[in-house]
Amino acid sequence: MNSGNFMQRIYLLLFCLSGFVSFAQVMQTVEKDTIELDSVPAVADPKYREDQFYASVAYALMQGNPDGYKQYSFSTSLSTGFLRDMPLNKRRNHSIALGFGYTYNNIKHNLAVTEKGGVNSYNVIDKDQYKLNKLVLHYLDVPLEFRWRNSDSISHKFWRVYLGVKASYMFYNKAQLEPEEGGGTVKIRKDPNINKFVYSTYISAGWNTWNFYVSYGTPIYDTAMIDGKRLKMSPVKLGLIFYIL
Asked: What pTM was estimated for this model as a whole?
Protein backbone atom coordinates (compact mmCIF):
# COMPACT_ATOMS: atom_id res chain seq x y z
CA MET A 1 0.00 0.00 0.00
CA ASN A 2 1.33 3.46 -0.93
CA SER A 3 2.16 5.24 2.36
CA GLY A 4 1.10 8.61 0.96
CA ASN A 5 -2.34 7.34 0.01
CA PHE A 6 -2.68 5.60 3.35
CA MET A 7 -1.87 8.73 5.34
CA GLN A 8 -4.39 10.66 3.20
CA ARG A 9 -7.02 8.15 4.31
CA ILE A 10 -6.00 8.61 7.93
CA TYR A 11 -6.31 12.41 7.57
CA LEU A 12 -9.73 11.95 5.94
CA LEU A 13 -10.81 9.70 8.83
CA LEU A 14 -9.65 12.25 11.40
CA PHE A 15 -11.49 15.00 9.46
CA CYS A 16 -14.67 12.91 9.59
CA LEU A 17 -14.22 12.33 13.30
CA SER A 18 -13.81 16.07 13.86
CA GLY A 19 -17.13 16.52 12.06
CA PHE A 20 -18.60 13.89 14.35
CA VAL A 21 -17.38 15.88 17.38
CA SER A 22 -19.05 19.03 16.02
CA PHE A 23 -22.32 17.13 15.50
CA ALA A 24 -22.15 15.68 19.02
CA GLN A 25 -21.60 19.16 20.47
CA VAL A 26 -24.73 20.37 18.65
CA MET A 27 -26.63 17.47 20.24
CA GLN A 28 -25.29 18.54 23.62
CA THR A 29 -26.51 22.12 23.04
CA VAL A 30 -30.01 20.82 22.27
CA GLU A 31 -29.97 18.85 25.51
CA LYS A 32 -29.27 22.02 27.49
CA ASP A 33 -32.84 23.13 26.73
CA THR A 34 -34.11 20.33 28.95
CA ILE A 35 -31.23 19.77 31.38
CA GLU A 36 -30.28 22.38 33.94
CA LEU A 37 -26.50 22.18 34.20
CA ASP A 38 -26.33 24.09 37.48
CA SER A 39 -28.41 21.52 39.33
CA VAL A 40 -28.41 17.73 39.59
CA PRO A 41 -31.77 15.92 39.14
CA ALA A 42 -33.02 14.22 42.26
CA VAL A 43 -32.78 10.80 40.62
CA ALA A 44 -29.25 11.38 39.31
CA ASP A 45 -26.05 10.34 41.04
CA PRO A 46 -23.90 13.42 41.84
CA LYS A 47 -20.88 11.08 42.03
CA TYR A 48 -21.52 9.55 38.61
CA ARG A 49 -18.43 8.50 36.69
CA GLU A 50 -17.64 6.19 33.79
CA ASP A 51 -15.29 3.73 35.48
CA GLN A 52 -15.00 1.14 32.77
CA PHE A 53 -13.43 -2.04 31.58
CA TYR A 54 -12.48 -1.95 27.92
CA ALA A 55 -11.66 -4.45 25.18
CA SER A 56 -10.52 -3.79 21.63
CA VAL A 57 -9.93 -5.78 18.47
CA ALA A 58 -8.02 -4.21 15.60
CA TYR A 59 -6.05 -4.88 12.43
CA ALA A 60 -2.37 -3.90 12.78
CA LEU A 61 -1.15 -2.34 9.55
CA MET A 62 2.63 -1.78 9.51
CA GLN A 63 4.19 1.46 8.26
CA GLY A 64 7.83 2.43 7.62
CA ASN A 65 8.52 -0.99 6.13
CA PRO A 66 11.62 -2.24 4.30
CA ASP A 67 11.55 -2.88 0.53
CA GLY A 68 9.57 -5.97 -0.40
CA TYR A 69 7.79 -6.19 2.95
CA LYS A 70 4.25 -7.61 2.89
CA GLN A 71 1.64 -8.71 5.38
CA TYR A 72 -0.70 -11.64 4.87
CA SER A 73 -3.82 -13.00 6.56
CA PHE A 74 -5.08 -10.86 9.46
CA SER A 75 -2.52 -9.25 11.76
CA THR A 76 -4.38 -9.15 15.06
CA SER A 77 -4.16 -6.66 17.91
CA LEU A 78 -6.22 -7.39 21.04
CA SER A 79 -6.34 -5.21 24.16
CA THR A 80 -8.16 -5.26 27.47
CA GLY A 81 -7.97 -3.32 30.72
CA PHE A 82 -9.57 -0.91 33.17
CA LEU A 83 -9.81 2.90 33.20
CA ARG A 84 -10.57 5.10 36.23
CA ASP A 85 -12.79 8.02 35.20
CA MET A 86 -12.10 11.43 36.81
CA PRO A 87 -14.76 14.05 35.84
CA LEU A 88 -13.68 17.64 35.31
CA ASN A 89 -17.00 19.52 35.33
CA LYS A 90 -20.27 19.60 37.28
CA ARG A 91 -22.25 17.69 34.68
CA ARG A 92 -19.44 15.11 34.69
CA ASN A 93 -19.42 14.66 30.93
CA HIS A 94 -15.86 15.96 30.51
CA SER A 95 -13.16 13.91 32.18
CA ILE A 96 -9.77 12.32 32.09
CA ALA A 97 -9.20 8.61 32.72
CA LEU A 98 -6.11 6.70 33.77
CA GLY A 99 -5.80 2.94 33.76
CA PHE A 100 -3.82 -0.20 33.11
CA GLY A 101 -4.19 -2.99 30.59
CA TYR A 102 -2.71 -5.67 28.37
CA THR A 103 -2.15 -5.87 24.60
CA TYR A 104 -1.48 -8.88 22.39
CA ASN A 105 -0.15 -8.35 18.85
CA ASN A 106 0.18 -11.11 16.25
CA ILE A 107 1.77 -9.69 13.10
CA LYS A 108 1.76 -12.06 10.11
CA HIS A 109 4.30 -10.93 7.53
CA ASN A 110 7.29 -11.92 5.39
CA LEU A 111 10.02 -10.49 7.66
CA ALA A 112 11.99 -13.53 8.84
CA VAL A 113 14.13 -13.45 11.98
CA THR A 114 17.00 -15.92 12.30
CA GLU A 115 19.81 -16.31 14.82
CA LYS A 116 23.45 -17.28 14.34
CA GLY A 117 26.16 -17.04 16.97
CA GLY A 118 23.86 -15.16 19.33
CA VAL A 119 23.15 -12.45 16.76
CA ASN A 120 19.72 -11.98 15.18
CA SER A 121 19.38 -11.14 11.50
CA TYR A 122 16.35 -9.92 9.55
CA ASN A 123 15.40 -10.67 5.95
CA VAL A 124 12.39 -10.22 3.70
CA ILE A 125 11.48 -13.60 2.18
CA ASP A 126 9.12 -14.78 -0.56
CA LYS A 127 5.72 -16.25 0.32
CA ASP A 128 6.63 -19.63 -1.19
CA GLN A 129 9.42 -20.01 1.36
CA TYR A 130 7.18 -20.31 4.43
CA LYS A 131 3.88 -21.72 5.65
CA LEU A 132 3.76 -19.42 8.65
CA ASN A 133 5.84 -16.42 9.66
CA LYS A 134 4.72 -14.20 12.51
CA LEU A 135 5.85 -11.85 15.25
CA VAL A 136 4.01 -12.09 18.58
CA LEU A 137 4.27 -9.24 21.10
CA HIS A 138 2.87 -8.98 24.63
CA TYR A 139 2.60 -5.58 26.36
CA LEU A 140 1.52 -4.12 29.68
CA ASP A 141 -0.20 -0.77 29.06
CA VAL A 142 -0.83 2.47 30.91
CA PRO A 143 -3.47 4.45 28.95
CA LEU A 144 -4.49 8.05 29.62
CA GLU A 145 -7.68 9.36 27.99
CA PHE A 146 -9.22 12.81 27.54
CA ARG A 147 -12.97 12.24 27.36
CA TRP A 148 -16.09 13.96 26.06
CA ARG A 149 -19.55 12.35 26.24
CA ASN A 150 -23.19 13.48 26.44
CA SER A 151 -24.11 11.00 29.19
CA ASP A 152 -25.60 11.15 32.68
CA SER A 153 -26.01 8.71 35.57
CA ILE A 154 -29.45 7.56 34.38
CA SER A 155 -28.80 6.46 30.81
CA HIS A 156 -25.62 4.72 29.71
CA LYS A 157 -26.40 4.96 26.01
CA PHE A 158 -24.62 8.04 24.71
CA TRP A 159 -22.23 9.49 22.16
CA ARG A 160 -18.57 9.63 23.11
CA VAL A 161 -15.24 10.86 21.74
CA TYR A 162 -12.13 9.82 23.65
CA LEU A 163 -8.57 10.90 22.78
CA GLY A 164 -5.81 8.85 24.35
CA VAL A 165 -2.09 8.27 24.77
CA LYS A 166 -0.65 4.97 25.89
CA ALA A 167 2.72 3.88 27.28
CA SER A 168 3.43 0.17 26.87
CA TYR A 169 6.08 -2.16 28.25
CA MET A 170 6.95 -5.21 26.16
CA PHE A 171 7.46 -8.17 28.51
CA TYR A 172 7.58 -11.01 25.96
CA ASN A 173 8.13 -11.43 22.23
CA LYS A 174 8.50 -14.34 19.82
CA ALA A 175 9.25 -14.53 16.10
CA GLN A 176 8.21 -17.85 14.54
CA LEU A 177 9.04 -19.16 11.07
CA GLU A 178 7.71 -22.44 9.65
CA PRO A 179 9.43 -23.21 6.31
CA GLU A 180 7.33 -24.40 3.38
CA GLU A 181 9.61 -27.36 2.70
CA GLY A 182 12.18 -29.07 4.94
CA GLY A 183 13.73 -27.85 8.14
CA GLY A 184 12.12 -27.36 11.51
CA THR A 185 10.24 -24.42 12.96
CA VAL A 186 12.49 -21.51 13.92
CA LYS A 187 11.51 -19.62 17.07
CA ILE A 188 13.34 -16.52 18.30
CA ARG A 189 12.29 -15.37 21.75
CA LYS A 190 13.23 -12.28 23.75
CA ASP A 191 14.73 -10.44 20.79
CA PRO A 192 17.00 -7.75 22.35
CA ASN A 193 16.58 -5.52 19.28
CA ILE A 194 12.89 -4.89 20.00
CA ASN A 195 11.94 -1.76 21.94
CA LYS A 196 11.01 -2.52 25.52
CA PHE A 197 8.95 0.67 25.75
CA VAL A 198 6.65 1.93 23.01
CA TYR A 199 4.09 4.73 22.89
CA SER A 200 0.94 5.35 20.90
CA THR A 201 -1.79 7.92 20.40
CA TYR A 202 -5.37 6.93 19.63
CA ILE A 203 -8.93 8.12 19.19
CA SER A 204 -12.16 6.22 19.84
CA ALA A 205 -15.59 7.51 18.91
CA GLY A 206 -19.06 6.02 18.75
CA TRP A 207 -22.41 5.30 20.36
CA ASN A 208 -22.99 3.23 23.50
CA THR A 209 -20.82 0.09 23.55
CA TRP A 210 -19.70 0.23 19.90
CA ASN A 211 -16.83 2.58 19.09
CA PHE A 212 -14.44 2.94 16.18
CA TYR A 213 -10.77 2.92 17.14
CA VAL A 214 -7.64 4.28 15.40
CA SER A 215 -4.15 4.12 16.91
CA TYR A 216 -0.65 5.09 15.76
CA GLY A 217 2.41 3.74 17.57
CA THR A 218 6.17 4.29 17.75
CA PRO A 219 8.55 1.79 16.03
CA ILE A 220 8.61 -1.82 17.24
CA TYR A 221 12.33 -2.31 16.67
CA ASP A 222 15.16 -0.36 18.25
CA THR A 223 18.56 -1.48 16.93
CA ALA A 224 17.50 -4.04 14.28
CA MET A 225 19.05 -3.59 10.83
CA ILE A 226 18.13 -4.91 7.40
CA ASP A 227 20.30 -4.33 4.31
CA GLY A 228 22.30 -1.78 6.28
CA LYS A 229 19.23 0.25 7.26
CA ARG A 230 17.41 0.50 10.58
CA LEU A 231 14.02 -1.16 10.82
CA LYS A 232 11.49 1.60 11.48
CA MET A 233 8.31 -0.44 11.34
CA SER A 234 5.46 1.02 13.39
CA PRO A 235 1.82 -0.11 13.67
CA VAL A 236 -1.33 1.73 12.66
CA LYS A 237 -4.29 -0.07 14.24
CA LEU A 238 -7.84 0.14 12.87
CA GLY A 239 -10.70 -1.56 14.67
CA LEU A 240 -13.36 -1.46 17.38
CA ILE A 241 -13.16 -0.77 21.10
CA PHE A 242 -15.87 -1.72 23.58
CA TYR A 243 -16.42 0.03 26.93
CA ILE A 244 -18.16 -1.95 29.66
CA LEU A 245 -19.29 -0.53 33.03
From this structure: 0.79
